[in-house]
Amino acid sequence: MTPIKELGECVIGTGDREFFFRPSFRNMARIGEPEEIVQAFYDLCNDEATPFVRRVSEAYIRDEYSRIPDCVLRFMQSGLLSRKAIMAAHTVLTACCDDDIGDLVGWMKPGKSRKRGFVWRPGSMPPESMVIVAQNLMMHGIIGKAKVRKLQRYETNETTAEFRAADYIMAARNHFGISREEAENLTMTEFAMMINAKYPNQNGFTREEYNTVMDED
């Protein structure tokens, strides 16, 4: 299947296999409960390493002879700071593909010793690439990256702790008269583009247009 990148779809290959990813409403729901979807997006987009390094520097680096304690260095090198982002990326990528992508993103297997119940087996995709791709999938899946005019009256600074895919699926069915399966297969980017196409001539200013007019006055 040929991906439509503008809608958030992508194909990633490993060996002789190719995997198709689509951040549809249905696949966003596969990430977890509404609050777990938002938490996954938060974990992907919030860098815990940089503020930690800044705090360490402020605490231990006084001059050119200062050094960071070995225990702190070992913690920074352990990967624990980026573990949330990597695990969130694994969850998102798995949810957005209908195939088994263990060879690509890794998997857990039972450990041979009693000390380690499970052992992580990395896939062929580097962790940093997993995070970047997962970020892009979620942007298209729950926020939308459509280049449409957003009127100022619709802008808001409010945040939400939940993403309810079912609400958008029902809205798509009502607005466009499509089947449940078709609505579930939409990405947020595609949904926004369809809304814009159905209601193209909305009166009002975008934030940028409003600021331009005010500056001219």
- Average per-residue pLDDT, rounded, comes to 81
Order of strands in the sheet with most strands: 1-2
Oligomer: single chain
User: Which radius of gyration do the C-alpha atoms yield?
Assistant: 22 Å
- Poorly predicted runs are none
Series of secondary-structure elements, N-terminal to C-terminal: EEHHHHHHEEHHHHH
Q: Biggest sheet, in brief?
A: 2 strands, antiparallel
Domains, number: 1
* First-last Cα distance: 52 Å
How much strand? 5-15%
Beta-strand segment tally: 4
Q: Helix segment count?
A: 11
The shape, in one word, is: globular
Pfam family, one: DUF6246
Characterise the protein shown here.
- Pfam families: DUF6246.
- InterPro entries: DUF6246 (IPR046213).
- With 217 residues, the chain is mainly α.
- The chain has one domain (5-149, 160-216).
- Helix content is 52%, strand content 8%.
- The chain contains eleven helices and four strands; from the N terminus they run ββααααααββααααα.
- The protein has helices at residues 25-29, 34-45, 49-60, 70-77, 80-95, 102-105, 127-143, 165-176, 180-184, 188-198, 207-216, and strands at 10-14, 17-21, 107-110, 118-121.
- A two-stranded antiparallel ribbon has the order 1-2.
- A hairpin with a 2-residue loop joins β1 and β2.
- It is globular and about 65 Å long.
- The N and C termini lie far apart (52 Å).
- The model has no long low-confidence stretch (mean pLDDT 81).
